[in-house]
Amino acid sequence: METPELDAAPLLLRPWGDEDADAVLAGQTQDPASLLWAGGSDLRSRDDAVARIDRMRNGDDRASWAVVDGATAALLGSVSVYSIDPQRGTAEVGYWTASGARGRGLAPRAVDAACRWVFGALAVDRIQLFHAVENTASGRVAEKAGFTFEGRLRRSHRYGDGVKHDELLWARLADDPVPRLG
């Protein structure tokens, strides 16, 4: 799937490139939160980061963006919409934010931009977001990005600590109110 560039001022969501490998490696392997919640533990080298970027940009059922500062082009995080199923009209969204970019409202803005594109461009009317119960920051992102809490899934996903965690399920529908992100 071709991933378009999206303007989410002050952010820019752009397709991933090999030039992002060093920033991905640093952001995903040197931050404890990323190691635990975003699966950075499988990255050991720049080649691993390039391989991950290649997987992110070359999937028929996904669109993945590097989230960068619109003014400086500094990498601030990632947002991906994956498991896109036009027959069922569903998809999932995931994201990570660089440690220095957290707490500034960037993740909800990036997630919202990706969702708007998916709803407008693809035959999808429901996007789901899952996160570990303990990852309360992701719950705040989901709520701010216009998702509605739907329930708890017990021991549903094994995270970077090797333990299966309960997850919370959120969903956003195409006709849900658009979030006000200021």
Structure description:
By secondary structure, the protein is α+β, with helices and mostly antiparallel strands. It has a single domain (6-173), classed as Gcn5-related N-acetyltransferase (GNAT) (Aminopeptidase). The protein is built from 5 helices and 8 strands. A hairpin with a 5-residue loop joins strand 3 (63-69) and strand 4 (75-85). Helix 1 (21-29) packs across helix 3 (46-57) and helix 4 crosses helix 5. Keywords: Transferase. Residues 11-175 form the N-acetyltransferase domain.
Instruction: Say how many strands there are.
Output: 8
In CATH, the topology is named Aminopeptidase
Specify the biggest β-sheet. 8 strands, mixed
Q: What is the overall pLDDT average?
A: 88
Side by side, the strands of the main sheet go 1-2-3-4-5-6-8-7
- Regarding quaternary structure, what we see is single chain
The helix count comes to 5
The low-confidence runs, each spanning 5 or more residues with pLDDT under 50, are none
CATH 2nd-level architecture: 3-Layer(aba) Sandwich
Q: Supply Rg.
A: 15 Å
Along the chain, the helix and strand elements come as EEHHHEEEHEHEE
Overall spatial form: globular
InterPro entries: Acyl_CoA_acyltransferase, GNAT_dom, Ribosomal_N-acetyltransferase
Protein name: RimJ/RimL family protein N-acetyltransferase
GO molecular function, one term: protein N-terminal-serine acetyltransferase activity
Keywords: Transferase
